[in-house]
Design brief:
mainly alpha; 2 domains; 4 helices; 0% strand
């Protein structure tokens, strides 16, 4: 079975007339965004979704939340975390939302 990433790239290739650019979110000149540029793009997208009524203010989420969601989903489906950091412990600490945190019933 083909990976979900391969399937996504096939879908992007099918809808784009410009096949030389493989960035999921390219700039106008077909390059990658800087970190600040992507943050600006993300915020504009979130505000546009809220204005259109597709997203409620209380349901807002960050790109980091989205990344953590898919890391967690990957672990649930495969039993292991994806390789997104040099140190796997960092991935587990930052992105794994499967963890159960013990709490007292006070």
């Amino acid at each position: 079975m083909r990976s979900q990433l391969s399937q996504l790239l096939d879908r992007l290739e099918a809808i784009r007339s410009d096949r030389e650019c493989l960035y999921v979110f390219p700039t106008r000149d077909r390059n990658q965004y800087t970190a600040d540029g992507f943050k600006t793009l993300w915020q504009r997208s979130v505000h546009a979704a809220m204005k259109a009524g597709a997203l409620k203010a209380e349901d807002r989420f960050t790109f980091h939340d989205l990344r953590a969601y898919y890391v967690t989903l990957h672990k649930q489906q495969t039993g292991k975390l994806p390789d997104i950091h040099k140190n796997p412990a960092t991935t587990a600490q930052v992105y794994d939302r499967n963890k159960e945190v013990p709490r007292s019933a006070n």
